[in-house]
Every structure is written in structure tokens, then in C-alpha cells.
């Protein structure tokens, strides 16, 4: 059913394919003159139909046995694997992601749905002895998790497949209906996956994938028929959503200005190799992209020489070219905003060691130093292919400087000092400390999320299911 660049792709409303009067054009970030395709924004009436269908479907999904939930998820996983090349190319076309990275995203989504099947089949409870005092003699508790109800999900443009999968997979695994708003910049990927979901045969009405306007998305956020809102995107948008969400649970996976520490004991060649990926993959448009780089003064000169040489070797270009390392930013507005931030940093005394000049949607890998921490490129989320380098003298100082941020998602620490690794784990105010790798590292079954302005709750299949279910205890008393 997938058609790129011709007739708009229909949208997936509670198991039906529908169109609407509101056509949504999908741009190609790399080539403005060649759109990636088109689809539709849902109408208010279509939104209402999707929500009513989800409410009705909950009476079926809540009773769906584990083997059936597992089968649906395994079928989706297999279907994505079978269409790997098609989906990878589509991500490159509408998101501007280099094809090598796009195919890795498809592979991760295959795993994410498979992991959902495994979690569906091992949702275990607990036996709790309650006889801690004479009045509770001969009593025992048994816990079990029950699905919470219809879920509203909003996914971002930078991982149009796998971050949506991190909402759909645990929802299906835990027996909850879901209405997903995919990103307006690249909705065609998940509408193609909707074809695979349809073939897997989930209960009628239990899954809708509906592009929609911001106004209709706001209505979804406040809709009390949803029992959980799960949002991945910018901090400013996410926290405002929480204010409007009412009594429903809210899970927020937001942004950051991730730091990486390179201490004097680090393997510098390995650190350089990984930080080049962590800072510049997908043009830095990753919420855990390396943005602030703290390098021990004893290795500063050697590290920076190697790092800048590596930056110079990165290939900027066509995302469909398998040799491309860095593709375009998602649109020209983002490239222009990045230019303004770099110009501000320079005006405040910063030095540009590499890159620094936008060319349409393309922004070259950029390295800055001597930038005051008050500059936007240090204090806010750049979401761009740039990194700011700082020297440090001792690990405690580096940890304090990483923590001097309103964000706290993940931090990478390159060290061969075990005590330093433990101190980093104990003292860094983040959701994840990655030793001898970049903060950009994530595998799909680990708990993932941040503290401070970086979010609320955790994703990763098992941890997402905890938020998508309510724990209930049954107390058994033996009469007598």
C-alpha cells in the first residue's frame, strides 16, 4: 500500500484505512524539490472515532491471553524485518537520516517488538507473606499487574520508527489499546508499519495511527478517556503537556545537553571513535547526542588533535548514499537556529575549531571551545551536529560541571579507573551513566529516561509496562 510521492497514503483509524480533506505534505530534508510523499491529518470526527474505538477495544484487550499478545507482537516484528530495506529507505527520504543509520533503526524496531512479545509472556506477580504481626496471622498477598486502559502516544521525528515502537510494543504487550500521533515531519514510516500491524490482527479498534494537527494533539493530551499519556519530544512541549493532562498518568522522554567525560586514563582512540558517532550521528538530532565534552587537561592536546582529524574525515551528504556519515537537519529552520546559536557563542568569545556554517538544511560537524556556559550551545539542547569542548583538572570538577545543567538524561564517562567509574555512577545526576561509551548509547531493553527537565518515568519494555499497568493485590486469609 505504501506509495511515496504520488497518491497520499491513507491513515489507520481503528483498523480501517481512511482519508480526510486535510492533506499533509511530507518534505524531503535533503532535496526540497522532491517531496517524500503525502498523507492526511485526521479530522476531529476521525479522532473521536479512534478514541471511542479504543475505549470499546479495552474490553477485549484487557482479557487477551499472553500467548495471543505475544503472537501479535512477533508477527509485527517479523513483518518489519521482511520490509527492512523499504522502511530504511523511507526513513532516509522523509527524515533525512543516513541510510546506514536508518537500517539500524529498523533492526532495533524488530527487536523492540520481539522484546514486547517476551515481556507479554512473563508479566509475573509476587507472593508476599503478610503475617508480620499476630492480627495478620495466616494471611498472604498475591500481586498481579492489570492493564490501565486506552493510551495516548506522541512520538518524535528523529526516530520515527523505533521511538514509536517503544510506545506501541509495551501497550500491546500489556493489553492496552493505543492511539498514536506520529510526527508530522515524517509520518509515512509508521503508516507503513500500520500495514504490518493490520496484518498481525490485533483486536478491532485497539490500534490507531493518526497524523493530526497540533490543535487536535492538544485535545488528545487533555482527553480524560485516556489513562496514560506517553510523549517523546522537546522539554518545553512535554512539561506543558503534563500541565494539561489532568488525572492521567504521564511519561515524558524529553531532551538534554548530554555530557561526556574523557579522563586521563581513557583509551583515547576508542573515546574519539565513539564520540564522533555520539556527537554527529543523524546530524546530532538525538536527545542523548554528545553536546558537552569534558577532557582532562593531561590528555587535552592529544585527544583534540585526534578528534578534529576524525571530524575532518566525516562525509556530509546525501542520506541515501551508504558512505554518508552526516546528512541534513530535518528542515532549514533548525539549521538556521543552529547557526544563530553558533554565532552567539562566537560573539561571547567562543572559538570554532571545525564547521560552523550552515548550507541550507546541511550543517557541517562543528566543534567549539572557550564558550561561556551561559551560551545557548551549552545551557540548552542544541539538537544539532555540534559539540562544545572543555578542559578539566580532576574528576570531581568534571562531574560538577556535567551536573550544572537543568537536564539529566545520560552521561558517558571514558575511564580505566574503577574508583572513578563508581564515583561517576554515584554522583552524576542523570538517568544513565555509560562507562567507556557515549551517552548516546541505548539498547532497547534497558531502562531509559532522565531526571530534572529531561523527563518523567522510564521507557524500555519492562519499565514502560510498569507505567501501562496498575498493580493489584489479593489478600488470602485462612479462616480459623
Q: What can you see in these coordinates?
A:
The structure is a single chain. The chain has 480 residues and is an alpha/beta fold. It has 2 domains: 11-254 and 455-472, Aldehyde Dehydrogenase, Chain A, domain 1; 259-443, Aldehyde Dehydrogenase, Chain A, domain 2, CATH 3.40.309.10. It is 39% helix and 20% strand. The protein has helices at 44-61, 66-82, 84-95, 99-120, 162-173, 188-200, 214-222, 235-244, 268-280, 300-313, 332-347, 376-379, 395-403, 418-427, 461-467; strands at residues 11-13, 16-18, 23-26, 37-40, 127-129, 139-147, 151-154, 178-181, 207-209, 228-232, 249-253, 259-262, 292-296, 351-354, 366-369, 386-392, 407-408, 410-414, 432-435, 451-452, 455-456, 469-477. The strands form 6 sheets. The protein has a 7-stranded mixed beta sheet with strand order 14-15-16-13-12-18-19, with helices on both faces. A 6-stranded mixed beta sheet has the order 9-8-7-10-11-21, with helices on both faces. β18, α14 (418-427) and β19 (432-435) form a beta-alpha-beta unit. It starts with 10 loop residues before the first strand and ends with a strand. Residues 1-5 have low confidence and may be disordered.
Quaternary structure of the protein: single chain
| CATH architect. name of the largest domain | 3-Layer(aba) Sandwich
Strand content: 15-25%
Helical residues, percent: 25-40%
Please tally the β strands and state the result. 22
Count up the domains: 2
What's the Cα radius of gyration? 23 Å
CATH class of the largest domain: Alpha Beta
By helix and strand content, what is the structural category? Answer: alpha/beta
Low-confidence stretches: 1-5
Strand order of the largest sheet: 14-15-16-13-12-18-19
Mean pLDDT reading: 97
Task: Give the biggest sheet.
Answer: 7 strands, mixed
Question: Gap between N and C termini, in Å?
Answer: 66 Å
- CATH topology-level fold name of the largest domain: Aldehyde Dehydrogenase, Chain A, domain 1
Q: How many helices?
A: 15
The CATH H-level homologous superfamily of the largest domain:
Aldehyde Dehydrogenase, Chain A, domain 1
Shape from CA axes? globular
Amino acid at each position: 500500500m505504501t506509495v511515496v510521492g504520488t497518491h497520499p497514503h491513507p491513515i489507520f483509524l481503528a483498523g480501517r484505512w481512511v482519508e480526510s480533506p486535510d492533506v499533509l505534505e511530507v518534505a524531503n530534508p535533503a532535496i526540497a524539490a522532491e517531496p517524500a510523499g503525502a498523507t492526511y491529518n485526521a479530522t476531529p470526527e476521525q479522532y473521536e472515532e479512534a478514541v471511542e474505538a479504543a475505549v470499546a477495544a479495552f474490553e477485549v484487550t484487557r482479557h487477551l491471553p499472553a500467548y495471543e499478545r505475544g503472537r501479535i507482537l512477533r508477527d509485527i516484528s517479523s513483518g518489519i524485518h521482511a520490509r527492512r530495506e523499504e522502511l530504511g529507505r523511507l526513513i532516509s527520504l522523509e527524515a533525512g537520516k543516513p541510510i546506514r543509520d536508518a537500517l539500524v533503526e529498523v533492526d532495533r524496531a524488530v527487536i523492540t517488538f520481539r522484546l514486547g512479545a517476551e515481556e507479554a509472556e512473563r508479566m509475573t506477580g509476587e507472593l508476599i507473606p503478610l503475617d508480620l504481626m499476630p492480627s495478620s496471622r495466616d494471611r498472604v498477598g498475591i500481586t498481579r499487574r492489570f492493564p490501565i486502559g486506552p493510551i495516548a502516544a506522541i512520538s518524535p521525528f528523529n526516530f520515527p520508527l523505533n521511538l514509536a515502537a517503544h510506545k506501541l510494543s509495551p501497550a500491546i504487550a500489556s493489553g492496552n489499546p493505543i492511539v498514536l500521533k506520529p510526527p508530522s515531519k515524517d509520518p509515512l514510516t509508521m503508516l507503513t508499519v500500520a500495514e504490518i500491524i493490520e496484518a498481525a490482527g490485533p483486536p478491532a479498534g485497539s490500534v490507531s495511527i493518526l497524523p493530526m494537527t497540533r490543535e487536535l494533539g492538544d485535545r488528545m493530551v487533555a482527553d480524560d478517556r485516556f489513562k496514560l499519556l506517553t510523549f517523546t519530544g522537546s522539554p518545553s512541549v512535554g512539561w506543558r503537556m503534563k500541565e494539561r493532562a489532568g488525572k492521567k498518568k504521564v511519561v515524558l522522554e524529553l531532551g538534554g545537553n548530554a555530557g561526556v567525560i574523557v579522563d586521563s586514563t581513557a583509551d583515547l582512540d576508542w573515546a574519539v571513535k565513539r564520540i564522533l558517532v555520539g556527537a554527529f550521528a543523524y546530524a546530532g538530532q538525538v536527545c542523548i547526542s554528545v553536546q558537552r565534552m569534558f577532557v582532562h587537561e593531561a590528555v587535552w592536546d592529544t585527544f583534540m588533535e585526534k578528534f578534529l582529524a576524525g571530524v575532518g574525515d566525516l562525509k556530509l551528504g546525501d542520506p541515501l548514499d551508504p558512505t554518508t556519515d552526516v546528512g541534513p537537519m530535518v528542515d532549514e529552520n533548525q539549521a538556521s537556529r543552529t547557526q544563530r546559536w553558533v554565532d552567539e557563542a562566537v560573539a561571547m568569545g567562543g572559538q570554532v575549531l571545525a564547521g560552523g556554517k550552515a548550507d541550507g538544511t546541511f550543517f557541517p560537524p562543528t566543534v567549539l571551545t572557550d564558550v561561556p556556559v551561559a551560551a545557548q550551545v551549552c545551557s540548552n539542547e542544541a539538537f544539532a551536529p555540534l559539540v562544545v569542548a572543555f578542559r578539566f583538572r580532576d574528576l570531581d570538577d568534571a562531574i560538577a560541571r556535567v551536573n550544572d545543567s537543568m537536564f539529566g538524561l545520560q552521561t558517558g564517562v571514558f575511564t580505566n579507573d574503577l574508583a572513578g567509574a563508581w564515583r561517576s555512577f554515584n554522583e552524576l545526576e542523570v538517568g544513565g551513566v555509560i562507562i567507556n561509551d557515549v551517552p548516546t548509547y541505548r539498547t532497547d531493553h534497558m531502562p531509559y529516561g532522565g531526571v530534572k527537565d529531561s523527563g518523567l518515568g522510564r521507557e524500555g519494555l519492562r519499565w514502560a509496562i510498569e507505567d501501562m499497568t496498575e498493580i493489584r493485590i489479593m489478600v488470602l486469609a485462612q479462616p480459623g
